[in-house]
Amino acid sequence: MDQNKLKQAAATAALDFVRPDSIVGVGTGSTVAFFIDGLAQRKDTLRGAVSSSEDSTQKLQAAGIEVFDLNTVSELDLYVDGADEITPQQHMIKGGGGALTREKIIAAVASQFVCIVDQSKQVDTLGTFPLPVEVIPMARAYVARELEKLGGKPVWREGVVTDNGNIILDVHNLMIKNPVALETQLNQITGVVTNGLFACRGADIVVVGTAQGPQIHK
Ligand code: 5RP
Q1: How far, in Å, from the CA of 75 to the mean position of ligand 1?
Q2: Beta carbons of 99 and 48 less than 8 angstroms apart
Q3: N or C: which end of the chain has fewer CB within 10 A?
Q4: pLDDT digits 0-9 by tens, 101-112
């Protein structure tokens, strides 16, 4: 079955978690684009959304869904986002689309994080997908040297500027045995804004698009 169909099936199944008259946290990426399409169909039952990227904001507004500033929202019961890799412990690598920092902020605020993926994203150990790290531009070379000391091979995502005006280093060659410890350690490097490990705050629910239909893991 084609990967987009599996992404769409996961995204559609996640619509069941959206409460009427609520504000929903919306992630970024191709799987989330299907989720936004689904939200658009029921926009009259929704108060609106908070968005993790300029790209998703544009898609939500084009669908006629109001986008709120996160600072004006004191409680958020649901955040729906994709992932680049996810383990059975519901730890993730995210940031393939470069939106990791805003994604992590919304995930921190939300009571429930529903991750939507196709089955190709499921792994036992994180690290085959290069780990994105968002870095203040003037710290790029310093942070790269520090990442090399940890055994990683950082590659600058040249030409990409994040929505926050920063750069991304994609770190190859990491086999991540302890995602919580590595997430914490990487955030201690001066100049790192955040890294794409979502382990300290993982997903609460995972909806996986499979050839047999969507599966829900709690
Ligand atoms: C963007 C992300 C995405 O959730 C992740 O890259 C998965 O994307 P897709 O749904 O297109 O496979 O973290 O920063």
Answers
A1: 24
A2: no
A3: C
A4: 999 999 999 999
CA of 28 to the centre of ligand 1 (A): 6
pLDDT in tens, 18-39: 999 999 999 999 999 999 999 9
| 95 CB within 6 A, ligand 1 | yes
| Distance, CA of 191 to CA of 194 (rounded, Å) | 9
Residues 6+ apart with CB under 8 A from 139: 190, 191, 192
Q: Which residues are catalytic?
A: 103
Nearest to 198 by CA among 208, 211, 207, 187: 187
Whole-prediction pTM: 0.97
Q: Specify whether the CB–CB gap between 12 and 38 falls below 8 A.
A: yes
Q: Give the mean model confidence (pLDDT) for residues 67-85.
A: 97
Work out the pLDDT band at 44, boundaries 50, 70, 90: very high
